[in-house]
Amino acid sequence: MTVAGRDAVARADVILTDRLVADGVLAWARPDAEIIDVGKEPHGSATPQEKINRLLVEHALAGREVVRLKGGDSFVFGRGGEEVLACAEASVPVAVIPGVSSSTAVPAIAGIPVTHRGLSQGFTVISGHVPPDHPDSSLDFPALARSGTTLVILMGVRTLPQLTAALIDAGMRPTCPAAVIADGATSDQRVVSGTLADIAGRAEAEAIRPPAITVIGEVVRVWRTESKGEASQSLRQR
Amino acid sequence: MTVAGRDAVARADVILTDRLVADGVLAWARPDAEIIDVGKEPHGSATPQEKINRLLVEHALAGREVVRLKGGDSFVFGRGGEEVLACAEASVPVAVIPGVSSSTAVPAIAGIPVTHRGLSQGFTVISGHVPPDHPDSSLDFPALARSGTTLVILMGVRTLPQLTAALIDAGMRPTCPAAVIADGATSDQRVVSGTLADIAGRAEAEAIRPPAITVIGEVVRVWRTESKGEASQSLRQR
What we know:
Two copies of one chain form a homodimer.
Chain A (H helix, E strand, L loop, with lengths): L2 H9 L2 E4 L16 E4 L11 H13 L4 E3 L11 H10 L12 H9 L11 E6 L13 H6 L3 E5 L5 H10 L7 E6 L7 E6 L3 H7 L6 E5 L3 H9 L4 H5 L1
Helix pairs in contact in A: 2-3
């Protein structure tokens, strides 16, 4: 959580909060602040985006200071852009307070840098929400397999077998190091490591459940070096 | 700045700080903390990484609580991994406190979400430090051009003409929206927008200097819609 985010929570008249918001964050809110949980509806499904947009605008137009609180970063698969547009349409001024994205933070805390000199000059973050062959997928897996960047997959526990198979089909090296980090940045964090070819099977064998983040790339070697106490001189000097 | 980062700065005996650290962050340090600026050497060049690693280990082994303070996220082109490995080698325990990466935060503050439903299912962050044809480049530009993700280029002001030409050569649509954000997240922030074909020329015409971040992809349309007050209904509903 950022200092700016905490200050905004402490000031807010109304807070629209979400699942994945860390415990304790709402403790910073004013006692009289109205907290609306839009992470789920009473019957368990997600609150429709249109309803969230409407709540944001309605409360703001009523003259209240509204905070839209999300875990991670609101603009990394967080629909922050849609909510900003809804406010802009209603002439509601918006200040964006960026957050710490799980896409880089969870690997870092687990000991995997998404970039590392000599190993990776970039990283690609994708949603694994839909499998590669799904009509809604706009990702080019042959390109992802060849880009030369570390691949970070969010929301891809269920689709991991298809995602890794698509990357191998596209020519990515099956022995490329890979790791799945479950419950990252919590005391329950677990890391399962393997290769592109076997990581899906290993994650299944370890009964990995969402939320989990998969990292595919040579940078996973940094974690192995560090966590196993192996001589790391060669890796550092690359 | 995160709450956890601020707390660490406030506790530290020794702080190794960097350029790109926001003004005011060091004001949270204890009055008796030792501040070492490793962002530059007296003669203006960068402090060698080996020297930074050595300072971290030496101060820690002397029993002092050491904070390595960087702007952005230490593991996104920040060499955090190298410093963690150096500490691991010396059996110095390290706690990683992830930061807010400019790669997603600067576009978000400027009004460009790196992902947006219907426009982008992922994003790729690369360093533009070396041009595409440089022997040190390990990026595959034809693949980057086709991945279907938003492309975010850090440290790429000088090389922008070569980078954009390589993407066009690789088949990326020359009319793809693009924007350069200079001095992002500061009161001096400037956004120059255009297309993949003309963004390098526009940035040069506007005398854009580092630090600046380039975003290439359909998501730049969100910024245009928002900032120009155009009807955004069609964009939101995609």
